[in-house]
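hey so i finally got around to running the thing on that chain from the lab meeting. sorry it took forever, my laptop kept dying and i had to restart like 3 times. anyway pasting the input first so we r on the same page abt which one it is
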Amino acid sequence: MKDNVKREQISDDPRYKIANREALIGIGIAIANFLWWFGFAYGFGSKDVDKYHYVFGFPAWFFYSCILGFIVFTILVIIIVKFFYKDIPLDAEYEDDTKGGSPK
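ok and heres what got predicted. didnt touch it at all, straight out
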């Protein structure tokens, strides 16, 4: 009985939906970052060293996978946090403002 009440409270709390959505976005960014890194590191880095191309003195695989990837994903995370993430209170007692209530 007590478990059912807690589950209903969790399913009714809009913060869990927001947190779930933001967690999925974070997982998507992490997977995209890994694919970027893996693609450039093993795509350009699997050649003989004599055939490497260099960008600013770094091997191309290292520049694109580690340096450019870091810059691109840092900017991407800043944009996503600024425009897609919501600031929600993490207090135990909370009422949704969109339903006309106010935080307790």
